[in-house]
Amino acid sequence: MVAELIAILPLSRLAWVDARSHRIPDDVILFLLLCGLYKIYLGGIQFSDAIFGLVTVGLPVFCFAIFLEKYAVMGGGDIKLCAALGFLFGYAVGYTTILLAIIFMSLTGLIFRRKAMPFAPFVLPAYCITIFLRSV
Questions:
Q1: Residue 116, pLDDT above cutoff 80
Q2: What average pLDDT score do residues 108-134 get?
Q3: pTM of the complete model
Q4: 3-state DSSP: the chain helix, strand, coil percent, rounded to 5?
Q5: Which of 70, 82, 98, 104 is nearest to 29 (CA)?
Q6: Please, which residues have CB within 8 angstroms of residue 120's CB and are 6 or more apart in sequence?
Q7: Where are the alpha helices (DSSP H) in 43-72?
Q8: What percent of the chain has pLDDT above 90?
Q9: Cα–Cα distances in angstroms (integers) from residue 15 to residues 23, 47, 48, 52, 121, in the given order
Q10: CB neighbours of 78 closer than 8 A, spacing ≥ 6?
C-alpha cells in the first residue's frame, strides 16, 4: 500500500506538467518504474506479474495509438505512462485505471467539445478511485 500512496506524488506532477505542456517527462516515468521495483522488493507484487502488467497494459495502448495514428490520439509519453502503471500495479489495477481515465477524458471532451486533451490529468483521479475501490 505504501507504493500505491507514493505513486500519487509523481502522478500529480505528471498531471500538472502534461496539462500545461502536453508532455510527460521521462524522469517521472522512471520514478514510477523504480516504485515498481521497490514494490517487488517488498513482496507486494511478483516480478513476473509486474512484467505481465507492463506488457499487457502498455502493448494494447501502443496498438491503439498506432491504429489511430492519423488522429494523434495518444503520444509516446502516454504509452510509457500506461506501461509504467501496469508494471507498478499489475494488469488489473493498470487496466482499471486506464479505462477510467479514458472514460473521464472522453466525457470531458464531449462536455467541453475539445478534441485534443492531455491524458495524465485524467489518470490521477482514475488512479485514486481505483485505489479507493481496492481498499473497500
A1: no
A2: 87
A3: 0.87
A4: 85, 0, 15
A5: 82
A6: 11, 14, 15, 17, 18, 19, 24, 77, 78, 81
A7: 47-67
A8: 31
A9: 10, 27, 29, 25, 4
A10: 24, 61, 65, 119, 120
User: Checking phi first, is residue 43 left (phi over 0); if not, alpha (psi -120 to 50) or beta?
Assistant: left
Amino acid 64: pLDDT:
82
Report the C-alpha gap between 103 and 101 in whole angstroms. Answer: 5
User: Which three cell numbers, joined as nine digits, stand for 17?
Assistant: 506538467
- The domain locations on the chain are 2-135
pLDDT, tens only, 42-83: 888 899 999 999 999 888 888 888 887 776 677 888 889 999
Q: Which of 101, 107, 102, 103 is nearest to 124 (CA)?
A: 101
What is the C-alpha to C-alpha distance for residues 101 and 81, in angstroms, rounded to an integer? 12
Tell me which amino acid residue 69 is: E
Give the mean model confidence (pLDDT) for residues 102-116. 86
Structure-derived torsion over alpha carbons of residues 126, 7, 21, 101, reported in degrees to the nearest 10? -10
Q: Are 117 and 109 in contact (CB under 8 A)?
A: yes
